[in-house]
Specification:
About 20% of the residues lie in helices and about 25% in strands. It is of the alpha+beta class and about 270 residues long. Helix 4 runs antiparallel to helix 5.
């Protein structure tokens, strides 16, 4: 029906501007030697919202598209960062750290009563190991054909803003994004964002009768591996990437043909 927010489409130094909006006097040509960051979303009012597919093969097309998997209205928000050439060692390390930040929180199992403020630190530790950080929250709630930033969920390091969002624990069937990033002024920006649903976790124990929760991805978009320094990845991180990409390929392939299918299969190969 419409965009859910103004598309953030940025390359090179513009990518370091977290909420950059392309304008004639500031835009830049996409360059294969620079990172390209695209953060986009839509408002969908139909029965085809559950899964998102990256459709950036044609420059004029939006980043996100939907496939028929679930009966629901929905609001989407997804970010991918691409490099089309040979990233530098520093760029690869930064990109890998951001991916590790995303995986760290996406793999987290947490008990009932946990707020987003308590979870935020989990998604920063890989960057902190290199003395790096990012100045925005790690995640926010999103609506169903409603607001792209919607309460009562918020995952953020800020303790004194947005009031009740910090006092509302996360619980099953809430929706939230995970979107760590890194931004180097004058050079590049990196962000990797998925939408998630909070689900009941299957744990071997149930301490004190407490419920535990986990994150289940709504967004099914390949994460580019070109800029990843695989030597930094742990076994668990490799397993998460491979499992996520296997799900992406399995869910999307039956709906695709031609170049789109080839792209998805290529971008979801195990590492």
């Amino acid at each position: 029906m419409s965009k859910s927010f103004d598309t953030i489409s940025s390359t090179g130094a513009n990518g370091a501007i977290i909420h950059y909006k392309p304008a004639p006097d500031t835009c830049a040509i996409i360059n294969k030697d620079h990172f390209y960051l695209c953060d986009s979303g839509g408002q969908y009012r139909c029965d085809i919202i559950h899964s998102l597919l990256c459709c950036s093969l044609m420059p004029a097309r939006p980043l996100t598209h939907v496939l028929s998997l679930d009966a629901s209205n929905g609001t989407t928000d997804v970010t991918r960062t691409f490099h089309f050439g040979q990233p530098s060692e520093h760029e690869r390390r930064c990109y890998t750290r951001v991916l590790q930040c995303h995986i760290a929180l996406a793999r987290t199992v947490f008990p009932h009563g946990t707020t987003g403020h308590k979870l935020d630190v989990i998604s920063r530790t890989p960057l902190w190991e290199d003395g790096l950080d990012f100045r925005h929250g790690t995640g926010h709630g999103f609506g169903s054909f409603l607001n792209v930033h919607e309460g009562p969920t918020l995952i953020s390091f800020r303790e004194s803003t947005r009031g009740c969002y910090f006092s509302t624990p996360l619980r099953a069937n809430m929706t939230v994004t995970i979107e760590p990033g890194y931004y180097e002024d004058g050079h590049f920006g990196i962000r990797i964002e998925n939408c998630y649903r909070i689900v009941d976790a299957k744990t071997p124990h149930n301490f004190g009768g407490t419920k535990f929760y986990a994150f289940e991805p709504f967004t099914l978009v390949p994460i580019q591996m070109r800029a990843v320094d695989a030597s930094l990845l742990t076994h668990e991180q490799r397993a998460w990437i491979n499992a996520y990409h296997a799900t992406v390929a399995e869910r999307l392939s039956p709906h695709l043909t031609g170049a789109a299918l080839e792209w998805v299969l290529r971008e979801t190969r195990p590492i």
